[in-house]
Structure formats: structure tokens, C-alpha cells
Give the backbone structure.
Amino acid sequence: MERFVRTAAGTSTKSYRQEDEDIPLSGEIQGKGDIMALWTLQSHTMLETHNSQCPGVILEHASDDTVSERTIDAYVDDADNYADAPETNDADEAITRLQTSAQVWADIVAATGGLMTFHKCNWQILVFTAVGGYVLYRSRTKFQDREIYLRNHKGLRSKIEYKAHTAANKGLGVMLCPTGDQKAEFTRRLQQTRESVARIATSSLNITETYLTLKTSLTEDHLLFSYHQLHSPATEGTCNTD
């Protein structure tokens, strides 16, 4: 298989491939022994570049001195950009900074030869307002004229889908909601559990096989992994199945 190198500067005129006299590899891409190191080098450079260009957010723990400063969370080909509004504490500033952060990341991806699938992207925002001594979420109607557009490497703009702050967003197999509401994730996992149990109940497994299936496939994969990813532990109200 012959391969060319493509970046924002164009496609190389020279190519590379596995030659007959080369040491046999398990694969040309994912099977190569150096692919993890090369991917780490590239992704680290991309993340550091983005971090130097975007302000990001500062997340402070509610009960101790833990502080997290970040501009983006990325895993393979998925990425979440973050922005806030430190000067005005208003939606307009946050949306503007978020668009800038997302555009910088799109440009970095394009520079390495990749492309952003804008139709799969979406943005969410938490905006608060003080009412009678309480802090409430502000509705979309208060900033409904604001949209986010991103351009690709050819300069074409795409409108990014807006999701309400109450909508769950699937990331790394987990349904996460900006408000911290875990109902969507719990409902999804409950349905998966019911489907798995139904399949096991109609299968021809002995007691040992049934136990191993429940422990490895159901308990560890469907439930434990999910709850390890949640930002806060499940509460009695969250786990109410009624």
C-alpha cells in the first residue's frame, strides 16, 4: 500500500510503503510499533499549540484548593473546547471566546492534514442570573441572536449546532449534561442492562458462564465504566427507577 503525506501545505509528491526487503510489520498503520510514540508527539504538539493560543477556563473545586486550568480535552479524534467570560461574566463574551477556541483547534487539525466534521459538532453554554438570592440558569432566549460559525481550510463557513444546557451530550460513551444531571446516562445504562439480561436469559449458558457474562460484560463494562466517568456520584434521586 503506497501512502502520501498530506498537510495544510498540500500533498507530498513522494510516497512511502512497505518494501519487500523491509522487516515485516504487524500492520502499516495501527500495527506499527512506533505509531503510539508518533501519535503522542503529534497530539501533544497540537494541544500545546492550542493551549498557548486560547485562554480556556479555570475550574476551582467547591470544597478544597484543587484547581484545574484547561483549554481543551481531547481523546483520539474527539475534542471538547472550553471558554468562559472572566471580564463581563456574560454570554456574549463566553460565546465569542468559545468560537475563537474552536476555530483555533480547527485550524490546527487542518494544519496536520486532518479535517473537522462540523456537522457533528455542537456547542452548549451555562449562563446564570441572580433572582431573589438564587442563581438560576438563563434561557436561550436571552442570547438567541448569537450563533457559532467555523470555517474549514478552504474558508467555507459552517453553522455549528446549538444544544440546550439541559441536553445530554455523548462523549467517550457517556451521556454528560453541563448541569450535572445524570438522568440521561442512567436511563441509557438501565436500558442496556435490561437488554443484556434479556439476552442472557434466553441463551444456553450454564451457571458459571452466566456469572462470568454478568460480571465481565454487564457489571464492569455497562455500569462501572460509565459511573467512573461521571463528574459527581449518583444520588438516590438520580437512581430512582420509578
